[in-house]
Specification:
Elements (H helix, E strand, L loop, with lengths): L20 E2 L6 E2 L5 H24 L14 E8 L6 E8 L5 E4 L3 E2 L8
Antiparallel strand pairs: 1-2, 3-4, 4-5, 4-6
Length: 117
Amino acid sequence: MNCPHCRVEMMAPPEGVAQHHQCPQCPRVAAPGETANEIETRESNRLNAIAMLDTALILRGVPIPANKGGTTMGQQIETRGCSACGGTQWKTIDTDDDGNPTSETTWVCGSCGHMGD
């Protein structure tokens, strides 16, 4: 089974253990027999849940904890209209202490799940 994002073989769980296959390069996971679309939908749902939790923490005034490197990180959430259904697409952009972007997710529509441009 290959990761639809990284195009590398996903690591199988230990034999006899009911776990998901996992990509060695990104956080995507897959149950045996899942399609690339199902894997991407699971990842989209995971990112959506993280964004909602981050937003809830920010709204409550909870400081973002320091990462293992000892620096604090922030996150920006951007939105735009979805070209597929007219709903709202969003993406998150992680930033360093100075507000410089360090990584970002792909655009995902909260209504129809459309990803990308």
